[in-house]
Amino acid sequence: MSKTPPGPKGEPLFGSSRTYAQDPFRFISALERAYGDVARFDMGPMDTVMLCDPTALERVLVSEADRFRKPDFQGDALGDLLGDGLLLSEGETWEQQRKLANPAFSMARLSGMADRITDHAEDRIADWSHGDVIDAEQSMTRVTLDVILDLMMGVELSEQRVQTIEEQLLPLGQRFEPDPIRFAMPEWMPMPDDAEFNRAVRTLDEVLDDIIEVREDSVGSGDDGPMDFLSVLLRALNEGNQSPEQLRDEMMTMLLAGHDTTALTLTYTWFLLSEHPEVEQRVHEELDDVIGDERPGMEHVRELDYLEWVIQEAMRLYPPVYTIFREPTEDVTLSGYDVEAGTTLMVPQWGVHRSERFYDDPEAFDPERWKPERASERPRFAYFPFGGGPRHCIGKHLAMLEAQLITATTASQYRLEFQGETPLELLPSLTAHPRQEMSMRVQER
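The structure assignment produced for this chain is given below.
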């Protein structure tokens, strides 16, 4: 007998989409508490199954990943934005692009880039003074843009050009905020914010065109040239193994996905340290003990255990990517329930990371959860901020290296005191942003 997952009934036409759009985070948590491993609901006309069972998640993301594909976004705004880049591509295209990208993200290469990450962090805090009030999210966005432009595209842009990129992020993000009307309407139907979104995409395309023009004569040939991702792709283009369209899609994916999640991780880390001075004090003590008067470098990162736990805990409580999606290519059984081919699978980091089934006092900020002996007690996929399996985030190691070095560089000199209201409210888009400005007062240590 067929077993259909349980879940809320929802409204005619809209299903649960209006409830989800009002607050996706509350909706995901409520479903996880009410139904546990599996829940089914309608996102407008889209049949959706939310999966919070770590054992089933391992099947979907790792052991049976070939039975689950990413949903086809090519006909909607996400496809217009990122095209056939690594984040959305499938099959042979994805395999070819991933193979090309791997050398640029290898730990051997990234280890040699640690000083450059520290350089960018020092440059961005050089004009801070005691008592200044900064927007932490904006500051972290700018430093992570600096890093991705340098390490993955081999360029350093003017402050005006970086600001141009930053100004496009708001209309892009707004386009992907949950909207029950959009859920119910066909993708081709025009909506009020489409024009602003399209203008932002065109502006970023122009920025990327300029970057490519600057770099196209300086990438060398074979294995002797620079190994930033743009150089690798331009050499492939010159050899006939890459199309201009594919190059554009990869660079757009790298520009946006390459900085956003790390900037958010850093923003939430500063917020949590400000709210928990005893944790902040331990971070400072570790930095003083490990780094002292030196500049943070790769040799220090390996010894900053407590700082790593802090960043991991920040990504548990505030995962920048709060849910990912998959789609079974055939009928499957997950956690004892039948799921038809083509059903949208929602795999929510937010729901799993904050589940009391896997974490004691899950709303609390407790970096010591990541002590090896405690972490080993949890299922593997009770924590997956970077996804998992063959489609795990290729920038995982870069993101962690950035987060540790930028935090270490900044916290060696300053404390940041949050000036806003709590509890923190989140704005759902492709990633989870804070709704309020993240104003923080700079205090010299």
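Interim note for the steering committee: The first strand starts at residue 38 and ends at 43. The two ends are 65 Å apart (CA to CA).
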